[in-house]
Amino acid sequence: MKNRRLEIRWGIYFIAMQLSWMLLEKLFGFHDAKIEQHATVSMLVLIPSFLIYFLALRQKRLKDFGGKMSFGQGLVAGLIITATVTVLTPFSQLITSLVITPDYFGNMIAYAVDKGMMTQLEAEAEFNLTNYLLISTVFAPVAGIVTSAVMAALNMRK
Length: 158
Hints:
- It contains seven helices and no strands.
- By secondary structure, it is mainly alpha-helical.
- The protein is elongated.
């Protein structure tokens, strides 16, 4: 476990970044007044997400592997970060939904219905805490596996 502290720490950094991102989205109005721009702005979180994985694997390579790291070593390190993120994601989603932006679901429902994108029932089924907990918890490992593989390839050194 001691040799995995670095990955766990970076997984915690990732969750802290996600919570900070949600807070910034809320503060800049993307969860209410500018909700029509929310989907686009939310995609930008990929930039710090990739950066965190890249920096974590670079640090792992330099600190634990003496500057050399195989793809497999990088992938394993990335998967441990992903496991940490996956375990913490439900808590992050709860903090986001209940503390940072408790009006988000109501605002999204109203927006989707008002714009004719969904019926009231469809919007209520889509935008709720249970659905977001499920989606975020399933998405975390899928996205993490792909990101781990890409960043492991970028950090390989022989």
